[in-house]
Each structure stands twice: as C-alpha cells, then as structure tokens.
C-alpha cells in the first residue's frame, strides 16, 4: 500500500511541477529535466508515468479539465430555467477561475497552444457537455441567440479569463457585487 501511495505522490509531483513551469515559463521552456528537478525525481521516473512530454501535458490538461467541470456543474440541475442554469454554471466557473488561478491559467494557455493533441481536446470538450446542452435547449426555447457554441463561449465565459488576469495583476478586485454585473453582461451577450 505504501508503494502505491508513493507512486501517486510522484505522479502528482510531476503534474504539479509541470503546471508550475508551464504557467511561469510557457510550454516550450518546461523541459522534462526541469520538470523532474522541480518534482524532485529523476528524469527517468517521468517515463514510468508518462510516455513523453506530450502525454504529460495532455494528461495534466484532462485532469484539470475534469476538476474544472466538477466545479462548473456543482449544484447545476438541468431542470432549472435556461437563465437560472446558466447563472449557476457561470458563477461556478467564475469562482473556479478567480480561486483556482494556477489551474485556470493553464487552461487558458491550452486554448491557444498546439501542445494539446486533438484527441485530448475532444475529450476535454466533453467536460463542457452540460453547458452545451443548456445552450442548445436555450436556442430551441428561443432564449439563447442561435449562434455557434464557440461564439457563446467566447462572449460569455472566456472574458472570465481576462478578469482573472486583471485580479492577479491587482488592477481590480472582484467581489460578489462586481460578479453580479459581470454575470449580467455575460447573460446579455448570449440571450435573445
């Protein structure tokens, strides 16, 4: 049992080291040697858990995406009205982005990098299925604009990344009052 725990700890250390290095140095300046050093394991140990850097990055992406979706859909019920359901999801995502900054920064980088392979991106997209289903229902009910889910995401969810960055830079601080205004802006951007 102790050996198994040690394996989990090493894998977690490698994922955390990768997360830290990618967020601070970018994907290309996070070589396996630096990841191993930061995780306090030998470089060869990485290959026990991951095939290569691509596999390591993809697995980190999918684990963080799963964590993101667990938070995003907490207390969401698909029997809510479209607006109520969207508000629950949006607020959950806002709290994730503003409180899980390292994970959020990594996911933001993943949106624009070719490092995440197509299969992992498709698996990652599945984590958003309840939101996509809600938007589709909203379009059928005539509540949500009949536009691409990518546009819906770009105008209602993606701005949260900007808000997270501004808070990190201490340019502004987001509290419940600001988030009410931000939600209303997000809702106005997608509602009919």
Summarize the structure in words.
By secondary structure, the protein is mainly alpha-helical. It has 2 domains: 1-50, Arc Repressor Mutant, subunit A, CATH 1.10.10.60; 57-190, Tetracycline Repressor, domain 2. 74% of the residues lie in helices and 0% in strands. It contains 11 helices and no strands. The chain has helices spanning 2-25, 32-39, 43-49, 53-72, 82-99, 101-112, 118-126, 129-140, 149-156, 159-168, 176-190. Helix 1 packs across helix 2. The protein is elongated and about 55 Å long. The N and C termini lie far apart (56 Å). The mean pLDDT is 92.
Distance N to C terminus: 56 Å
Q: Helical region count? A: 11
Largest sheet: none
Name of the CATH architecture of the largest domain = Orthogonal Bundle
* Percent of residues in helices: over 70%
Q: Approximately how much beta-strand content do the residues carry?
A: under 5%
CATH topology tier name of the largest domain: Tetracycline Repressor, domain 2
Number of domains: 2
3D shape:
elongated
| Overall pLDDT score | 92
Helix/strand order, N-terminal first: HHHHHHHHHHH
Radius of gyration: 18 Å
CATH class of the largest domain: Mainly Alpha
Judged by helices, strands and strand pairing, the structural class is: mainly alpha
CATH homolog superfamily of the largest domain: Tetracycline Repressor, domain 2
Number of DSSP strand runs: 0
Low-pLDDT stretches are none
């Amino acid at each position: 049992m102790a050996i198994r725990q040690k394996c989990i700890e090493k894998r977690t250390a490698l994922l955390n080291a990768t997360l830290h290095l990618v967020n601070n140095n970018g994907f290309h300046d996070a070589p396996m040697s630096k990841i191993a050093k930061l995780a306090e394991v030998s470089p060869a140990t990485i290959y026990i858990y991951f095939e290569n850097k691509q596999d390591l990055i993809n697995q980190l992406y999918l684990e963080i995406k799963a964590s993101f979706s667990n938070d995003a859909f907490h207390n969401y019920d698909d029997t809510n009205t479209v607006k109520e359901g969207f508000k629950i999801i949006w607020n959950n995502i806002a709290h994730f982005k503003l409180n899980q900054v390292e994970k959020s920064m990594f996911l933001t980088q993943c949106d624009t990098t070719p490092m995440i392979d197509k299969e992992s991106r498709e698996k990652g997209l599945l984590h958003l299925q309840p939101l996509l289903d809600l938007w589709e229902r909203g379009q059928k009910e005539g509540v949500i604009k009949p536009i691409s889910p990518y546009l819906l995401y770009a105008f209602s969810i993606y701005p949260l990344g900007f808000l997270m960055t501004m808070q990190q830079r201490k340019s502004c601080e987001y509290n419940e009052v600001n988030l009410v205004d931000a939600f209303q802006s997000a809702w106005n951007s997608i509602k009919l």
